Amino acid sequence: MTPGSPEFSASIALFAAGVSAVGALIAFFSVFIARKNWRDSNRPVVSAYVDEESGGAGITIFNLFLKNTGNRPATLIQLHAAEADIERIIAEQAESKRREHIKTVFSEESRLAILHPEETLVTSFGLASTSPNEQWLKYGEEFPVQVTYRDLEGRKYKSHLFIRVRPREGFGGGVWKSAA
């Protein structure tokens, strides 16, 4: 094969076509990856946690918070937990109406229609007490929770996390308070 021969020209044309095809594939995958990355970074991200509302005189009142830390609204947000896991955090002496109150948080009737970006919603969750007659929750217990939700286009998401019945401040066991 010599330069200028028909075979040489054909092989150059074939090589050029191959380079063009590889370039087109790279461009296609680049667009695909860019779109996927855009979707992953422009979506709702919903999490849940328990925190102390107030405490004193041997009683700690807890709220459960839902927060959307993503940059798009979340819709049809619902918390799910296994019945056995919910029972594990509820104090044995808790009244049946208190048990139902806590279980309702994880039922379909508590599903939220929408949670805007950076919005945090709260619901009462129960209390822990040094007095056995007033205790609803077991202080310090942890249980797995799944948060399901959608974005405005209907794509489905799940967050798997653990919720612990304990104040978030002093997560390691305490905090130093200033005397101010």
What does this protein structure show overall?
There is one protein chain. By secondary structure, the protein is α+β, with helices and mostly antiparallel strands. It is built from three helices and seven strands; from the N terminus they run H-E-E-E-H-H-E-E-E-E. The protein is elongated, with a radius of gyration of 27 Å.
Task: Reconstruct the topology from this structure.
Elements: H1 6-41, E1 46-56, E2 59-68, E3 74-80, H2 83-89, H3 96-104, E4 112-115, E5 120-129, E6 142-150, E7 156-164
Antiparallel strand pairs: 1-2, 2-5, 3-4, 3-6, 6-7
Quaternary organization: single chain
Instruction: Bin the helical content.
Output: 25-40%
The main β sheet shows up as: 4 strands, antiparallel
Unreliable spans are: none
Mean pLDDT across the residues is: 88
The proportion of strand residues reads 25-35%
Protein structure class: alpha+beta
* Secondary structure tally, helices: 3
* Counted beta strands: 7
CA radius of gyration: 27 Å
Give the terminus-to-terminus CA distance: 90 Å
User: Strands across the major sheet, in which order?
Assistant: 4-3-6-7
Helices and strands, in order, run as: HEEEHHEEEE
Shape: elongated
